[in-house]
Amino acid sequence: MTDIGDMDLEDLVSSWExxxxxxxxxxxxxxxxxxxxxxxxxxxxxxxxxxxYVWVLGLTxxxxxxxxxxxxxxxxxxxxxxxxxAAQRAASCDHDTHPYETHAGxxxxxxxxxxxxxxxxxxxxxxxxxxxxAWSCPRNVAGFARIALDILRPGEVEDVPPRLSLxxxxxxxxxxxxxxxxxxxxxxxxxxIASQGSRLHDAEPAERPGRLxxxxxxxxxxxxxxxxxxxxLRGLIGAVEKVLPDFADATCDHDGHPKLSGxxxxxxxxxxxxxxxxGRRVYxxxxxxxxxxxxxxxxxxxxxxxxxxxxxxxxxxxGYDKIFGPRDTSHLDAEYLxxxxxxxxxxxxxxxxxxxxxxxxxxxxxxxxxRRYDRLERLEEDGGQIxxxxxxxxxxxxxxxxxxxxxxxxxxxxxxDVLAALRRTAAAPRPERCAHTGAHPxxxxxxxxTGLPHFYAPEEFPPTDDGHSVESWTCARFAGQVADACVAAxxxxxxxxxxxxxxxx
Length: 505
Fold this sequence. Notes:
This protein is mainly α. 60% of the residues lie in helices and 1% in strands. α11 packs antiparallel against α13.
């Protein structure tokens, strides 16, 4: 063990590391503020001392927490760090380079706790590029004092490697977790996506290219079907429409523009990096990592931004129409009806299998079935002579099962029209008891599919061993149960907006 004055260094570093690792899980409090104040006070008492590196590196580890702590602890930390920088910066040394000059970000901070324990322990294994003497050198101490100040006051300190601000780093983490479909606890996904549109809408000119890159990244998630609030997409579309004129007439002399990543997490990080002065310095420092080597002026080029804006806007508008716009299913008659006008029951039942490759058919098949079911129901109510009871049963089951297969969820326009068709059946009077004997066909796991062909076309398909009678298939109570299950799954999926639907139609 190594002692620093009256403190055990291992215990001291452990407490700093715990605060550094867990600062975002709890609000600032007196105990942790006290740890910051103690470290700052020990540095302020002897800012030019040989062991000042301990307290400077300690305040570097604590800086992220200090950003959230009380005004007193932050002011004390800044004052101590400025004193250390002033006291140690002018010292002469024989080192050609110092560790602080390449200490470029929060990932490097993770090595500091271990280094703090090994620097004073000559018996500890040493595998750093710089020597122990370079780490404890006064000029390195001054450099790390400025790094800690840069964390506390982004952009105000010169002569240190640039790094993202705490807020930007947290934004990157939040968005990447969301876009990887594992949002952090407490994240409101729709609100987080919507906020990116608001930030672009309100961005200052220098921030707009970066914010546009972020909207590009989140737009793919927004139109995936996982966002069920149309106002989110309208907000993103409105934001891009607002800034597009800023770039629309731009020209440039560039031979070409960067090829942007198609991975949403990388694209979101790039956008956040480009959205602040400190982030743009980070980009210049590590542009091989963020932009494939493209110079900053190309990555934020107004002519390039016009291309990005148009492409993003096209995708958002198409996605909005797909989710919320009216759907035409008339072309599906040719796909699901035979030339004689009867259902192609084999194709229909095959596409009701709950397997991933049927997801692409589910929305249109379910909507087509629900609309045809509704038309046939109205024909019968109007006194039509068409006996389509078997077909209506198949169509009802098809609509319900297709909505079950739909992934991640049926688009709003699909859910709205399926609900409109099936609510009538769900609300219709039904007898207290079934007129038939035996159970209804099962609805779970799609088992009903095996009996559908024989039920619909007994003259073409041999009977199965399920033992369900025609009466059990066509039972009014069974139809009500199927409709109930589908309505319950779809209701509340989207906030219904009849006025907006009417305007869009």
